[in-house]
Amino acid sequence: MPTQVPVTAFALCNALGTTTSRVLENLRAGNTGLAPAALDLPFETFCGAVPDSLDQVPARHRAWDTRQLRIGLRVLEELRPAVDAAARRWGRDRVAILLGTSTGGIAETEAAYSAWRRSGELPREFDWDRKHSMAALLEVFRFETGLSGPAFVVSTACSSSGKVFASAHRLIDAGACDAALVGGVDTLCHTTLRGFHSLEVLAAKPCRPFSSERRGISIGEGGALALLEREGDARAALLGEGETSDAHHMTAPAPDGSGARAAMLEALERAGVEPSQIDHVNAHGTGTLLNDAAEAKAIRSLLGARVPVASTKGYTGHLLGAAGATEALFSVAALEQGFIPRSLGASPVDPDLGIHVALDRLERRCRTVMTNSLAFGGNNLSLVFGAPR
Amino acid sequence: MIDAWVRGLGLWAPGFPSLAAWTAGTPDASATAPAAALLPARLGRRSSLLTRIAAEVLEQAAAGAPGNTTPAVFATAFGETQTLCAILDSMFTDGTVSPARFHHSVHNTAGGLLSIATVNRAFSTTLSAGQSTVAMALIECFALLQQRGDEVLAVIAEESPPEPFAQDGFAPAGAALRLSATAIPFAQRVRLRRSDSALLLEPRAGHRNNPIAIALPLVEALHLRRAGLFALGAAGWALEADPVTRSA
Question: Which residue of A120, A241, A311, B219 lies most exposed, with the fewest beta carbons within 10 A?
């Protein structure tokens, strides 16, 4: 018997805004957050940078101060009342913290390395464990929330923060916790921008997922957090998850989309949902030739050619380690607010894909929404969310 | 959480190419790099020490496992630090990043390469939790066993960060556990518990500063069929291992 886990609260911060309401207003309005990269780079590209200045971290966390932490604390601030209520309801040791990140605090590591190259010394404020380590964000989140349940970071590149939803569902079902604060945070940095450029998949202009004119990805930054509880007032419900490997190539997807399809099928089976019941797919849709072609094959063969598909990467850029959680919560917002966002930049749609890409926003009450995250290492994740019953 | 049965174990540390060598205690000075036979030359040539350690301990623990469908939980606190530093070095030398280095720099490099090498299309994850990395890897493993039954592999490995980030140096090392959700004759039964009074196994010299250090004496204790409640690091979680009886 499949169980479902209520999503009782969530918050977002990315190129569309630093508050959840601003982010969702811009998503509904079809506004992009992409702009020419502000970093000093030897090539042209557009990025989804968090638009406003972020608060200083409190003095007690100065040693952990990174851009990742600043974004993380910004998102956590909005969720604090819900997190405190969950801690009171379930007990602090029964609430997990499961976060996804790909970059961690690497923006600060880059700066420290650069300083070391110039002067032979690391900056005094640089601390490997408190800034670079994947666990740094966890440590501050544990301190700030007082939560002492299981706490880990999943880092599987671009599926990282989607996979923590699956871990949370599993841990709650297994009795390891009763609730989980889940999500992810990634920041813009030279390593990823120059790395994706070296792979020749970085677009010079804003990304155009599913378009016949797509030329690659745009990278973004941001954070997304949600509270999943064993029981509670559901804004939507996490129904099922699929987690598979391509076993094909470190960066290129299996061309037939078989790994993505297997993840989507597993998610449907765990959710107890028929393919015909999926009313919308928030696709991984990066805007590269290979990803979009392989993912479209998977969608078409499993769900058919009529389900409205949108990629939201034209709004935020590809948030890498934070993409899965951000798009999971866009899916929750679609269910809750009754709209399917338009797939920004998709026109003219690549006719070879054979799927229905939403070129205009659709006002529609969906029953169930699927979202995909497909990562380096051939690591595939698919989540199915349902409207609260 | 449910009980599990230990079906296989693996260990690699400098001087100790196997769990048997580690338990015997006499280091073999020639064992400076793992054999990592699972990685074909094509994938292995460019692989980091971290990935080769993961390949080695996974192979040891999975020996005799049927098929290639076992879910795998990879765990490392710091990830591919040698590759990252090579990227930073070239980036601040001439502004370039090698594409091969870039896609070998992600935390799930070992998980990805080993899924390719063993044609395993099943579940794979890579997680991290500082000093609690070993405990959290096992929590995810037990939750997977409860969700899916069958078996799961925990593959825990760490390489030491290079200059200028090598502060409190430690030796690279790794350990792996193959756990089953169903009783296996003569296998040791284990379960996870929260405990503040569990036995703290002492890491050997050279490994104390390794965030995954506890994994080494833990698999050693299980290899020796010791019973007890073994602490799993900073998180207050412990693995309880039952006495092994002669009859199944």
Answer: A120
User: Is residue B86 included in any domain, yes or no?
Assistant: yes
Domain that holds residue A165: 5-386
Confidence of residue A1 (pLDDT cuts 50, 70, 90): low
Contacts of A81 (CB under 8 A, 6+ apart): none
For residue A346, give the DSSP letter. Answer: -
Of A117, A135, A163, the CB nearest to B128: A135
Q: What is the pLDDT, as a whole number, of residue A52?
A: 83
Does residue B57 contact residue B216 with C-beta atoms inside 8 Å?
no
Q: Is B149 left (phi over 0), alpha (psi -120 to 50) or beta?
A: left
Cβ contact (<8 Å) for A379 and B133?
A: no
Instruction: Mention every residue, 6+ apart, whose C-beta is less than 8 A from residue A5.
Output: A168, A169, A172, A228, A229, A230, A237, A238
ipTM above 0.90, yes or no: yes
Instruction: Please check the confidence at residue A2 and state whether its pLDDT lies above 80.
Output: no
Q: Which residue from B1, B108, B123 is facing A176, i.e. has the nearest CB?
A: B1
**Could you give the CA distance from residue B111 to residue B51 in angstroms, rounded to a whole number?**
8
Give yes or no for a contact between A207 and A48, defined as CB atoms under 8 angstroms apart: no
Q: Which two tokens stand for residue A189?
A: 């940095």
Give all strands (DSSP E) within A277-325, no chain letters: 278-282, 308-310
Q: Rounded to an integer, what distance in angstroms lies between the CA atom of residue A166 and that of residue B127?
A: 13
Q: Is residue B133 part of a domain?
A: yes
Chain B CB contacts of A156 under 8 Å are 106-108, 111, 124-126
User: For the residues A97-114, what does the mean pLDDT come to?
Assistant: 96
The answer to the question of residue B234 being in a domain is no
Provide the number of structural domains found in chain A: 1
Q: What stretches of chain A adopt beta strand conformation (E)?
A: 5-14, 35-36, 46-48, 95-100, 151-154, 179-186, 219-220, 222-229, 236-245, 278-282, 308-310, 339-340, 356-357, 362-363, 368-375, 379-386
Beta carbons within 10 angstroms of residue A19's beta carbon:
17
- B98 neighbors B90 (Cβ within 8 angstroms): yes
Predicted local confidence at residue B66, as pLDDT:
61
| Per-chain mean pLDDT for chain A | 97
Whole-number Å distance between alpha carbons of A152 and B33: 29
In angstroms, the CA A193 to CA A219 distance is 7
| pLDDT band, very low/low/confident/very high, at B168 (cuts 50, 70, 90) | confident
Out of B78, B121, B132, name the one closest to residue A247 (CB): B121
Structurally, how many domains does chain B consist of?
Answer: 1
**What CATH number should be reported for the domain holding residue B113?**
3.40.47.10
For residues A5 and A232, give the distance between their C-alpha atoms in angstroms, rounded to a whole number: 9
For A120, residues 6+ apart whose C-beta sits below 8 A from its C-beta are: none
Q: How far apart are CA B137 and CA B120, in angstroms?
A: 19
CATH number at residue A311: 3.40.47.10
CA atoms within 13 A on the CB side of A303: 33
Return the residue matching tokens 């989309």. Answer: A257
- The number of residues making up chain B comes to 248
Would you say residue A233 has pLDDT above 60? yes
Residue A300 tokens, joined: 């078409």
User: Residue B175 is part of which domain span?
Assistant: 4-184
Q: How many CB atoms lie within 10 A of CB A5?
A: 24
Would you call A198 and B98 a contact, using CB atoms and an 8 Å cutoff? Answer: yes
Rounded CA-CA distance B173/B196 in Å is 26
Answer for the pair B154, B138: CB distance below 8 angstroms, yes or no.
yes
